[in-house]
Structure formats: structure tokens, C-alpha cells
Amino acid sequence: MKKSLLPNYILILAATLTYAQPNTEIYLFDIGEKEGKIELSNLRNISNNEGYDNQPSFYDDNTVLFSSTRNGQTDIARYDIATGKVSWITNTSDGSEYSPLRIPNSDDLSAIRLDTNGLQRLYRYDTSTGKSKELLKDLKVGYHVWSDENILISSVLVDEGMDLVVSDLKDGSNRTIQKNVGRSLHKIPTAELLSFLKLEEGPISIKSLDPTTGATKRIIPIMSTISDICWLSDGTVLAGDGNRLSKFNPKTDKKWEMIWRFEEKEINNISRMAVSPDGKHLAIVSEESPAKIVQKQVDSYNAGDLDAFVNCYSKDVVVRNFPADTLWKNYSSLSPDKKVYDVEVTKRIVIGNKVIDEEKVTGNGKTQMQVALYEVN
């Protein structure tokens, strides 16, 4: 810890709580090209919903499917690009759906359903009625992708990891191809192959799979911080890391190249991506900005909402006057009938998951300035 360069300020340290399902949003961009390079434009939030919104996929060039939280459960929603409207496909009272995909040569979709009793299975859904039927019995599917309407490739939960399984819906067979794989499964547009992530000691590898023969081949290693990729129609792989996009084309490139850094404050930590069939749109999932999380605790403090304020922090939070004096031993003084201070953020700097706030604190007939440092996990 370095000493503060602002001796007249109070420096506060804090760490916020890590959530199992963070507040995520789905953003849509137009994909263009300028001087031979990819250009993204026209950002819009297509989920715009407090809570968990994730796993986008394109039903067609104009429709995005995704899982979204409402009424305490996660259902399948669809976004119409032309109209900007969201509608709902499922409303399952005894379970939640995840990872929707259109089934090839069909209007139906598949999705993973986690029932309230803990049962997790893959189902087929009628997009008009929302009615469903189980597709794979006895397999706890985590993620999946279709090779064709009969051949399905899944990351199946086994013990502490996932196995890559090829299922033939015609004869009911299931073949385990690889063990210890990741969640990112995609069709490779330039070949009759699929891609998956092999979790290995050292760098994770993108590998190809021939679903007919079961043959696999290493394509390129990726950084351990990357958990999802997607493919452009020309065979270029896109990978998101933080607020950056990198690309690699196995036919023309020798190494990864960073091609885009998102300047928008909404794009913080990319966890999922999908490209439309016509290559004109990119959907990405981003966790909410650390600045937004920090602002929640500032707003709850000013409102005297003790529960909301405390819920912003981890149980082992450390809050001190710099450098070592404990500031908060309890939060009882925050209750609305006792609160005497108000905080105004006058300047904010965000560096990765660190937030530095310059704050004006008013109360008890005086005003003072302080610097607050936050680490958001």
C-alpha cells in the first residue's frame, strides 16, 4: 500500500461482495468494416433488465434469443432487431431455462432447464406455445450446440468438470469425445466441424471436432481469462477479454491481434458473444461496470438504507481511515433516524475492477473531502 499523496483527505478502503450470478446485460452492435478492419457501432442494450441476462444466440438475422430473469426465475426471451421489442417464449413455473438455440431445419428451439428440484436436462421448445419435451435423458447438459437436426454436441457436467459428448438423437447413442472441456461450443462456418475449448495445464486451447469421426485437432491456444469465443463467416475467431476484442484466422494469422477496445462504460467484462448468420450484428454479454456497483452503495448510504448498503460489501470487508485506523465496526449509525452525512461523488476513475472516488461529505454543519478506493470482485 502506497501512502496517499493527498494528506488532507481521508482514504477509505473497501471490497464488494462477489455474486454467484452477477447483474449482466446483453448489448447489440452493428458490425461494419473500415479500411479493411472490423468496426462496431450502434450500441444498444437489448435486455435492459435488472438481474441475470445471458447466453444470446441468433434465431435468424433479425431475432436474438437469450435467457433473462423475471419473477424470480429465468425464462427464454427474444429480441426483434427491427422493432426493438422483447417478447417471452417460456414461462416455466417449476424451473428456469438457459442457453437457447434454434434447432436446425426447425422453428423450435432447445434450451437447458434447471428445475426447482435440482434436475437439469435439455429440452425442446415450441416457439409458438412454449410447450416442451425432454431431448436427452440421463445427461446433465451444461452447454450445447447443434451439428444438424439429429446430431448434438454437449458439455456434460460430470463430477467436478465437463465432458464433451456427441449425441445421435436418431439412435439414442452418446459418445464421450474429450474430458475437461469448457462451455464455449460453436459451429465453424468454413468447415463441417465444431469448436470447443480444451482445459489443459497451461494455455487453454481452441480445438476442432469432426462430429462424425470424433477426430479433434488443436487450432490455437488462448489466454486463461477467456471463456468464450465466436466465429465470423470468413473463419475468423473472435475472443473477448475484459473490454477488448481480439481476432485470429487460422488460415491467415500467426497470432492473436487485438482489434477493438470498447470505450463505452457499459462494457466492462465480456463473458459471452454471438454473431448473426448474415454477419451484420454482434451480441455480447457484459457484467455491470464496477462504477455502477460502487454507485449503488453510495446511493443506499445517502438514502439511509442499511440493508442495501451492507449488501454491497463482502462479509470480510475492510474499511479504514488511511492508513490503519478502523473506521466501521458496525453500521447502526446509518439508519435513517440517525444518519447525519451525505456523500457526493465529485470525480470518479475506473481502472479495471478498481474504482477511485473523490467525494464531498456534508453533515454536522461541516463539509470535508475524502478519497474512497473500492475493489469490485
Description:
- The chain is mainly beta and 377 residues long.
- The chain has 2 helices and 30 strands.
- The strands form 8 sheets. Strands 1-30-29-28 form a 4-stranded mixed β-sheet, with helices on one face. It has a 4-stranded antiparallel β-sheet with strand order 3-2-25-24, with no helix packed on it.
- A hairpin with a 5-residue loop joins strand 17 and strand 18.
- The relative contact order is 0.14.
- The N terminus is likely disordered.
Key words describing this protein structure:
4-stranded mixed sheet; single chain; globular; 377 residues; disordered N terminus; mainly beta
SSE inventory with pairings:
Elements: E1 10-15, E2 24-34, E3 37-45, E4 53-60, E5 63-70, E6 73-80, E7 85-88, E8 95-102, E9 109-115, E10 120-125, E11 132-136, E12 141-146, E13 151-158, E14 161-168, E15 173-179, E16 186-188, E17 193-198, E18 204-209, E19 216-222, E20 229-231, E21 237-241, E22 244-248, E23 257-261, E24 269-275, E25 281-287, H1 290-302, H2 306-310, E26 320-321, E27 325-326, E28 342-351, E29 354-363, E30 366-375
Parallel strand pairs: 1-30
Antiparallel strand pairs: 2-3, 2-25, 4-5, 5-6, 6-7, 8-9, 9-10, 10-11, 12-13, 13-14, 14-15, 16-17, 17-18, 18-19, 20-21, 21-22, 22-23, 24-25, 26-27, 28-29, 29-30
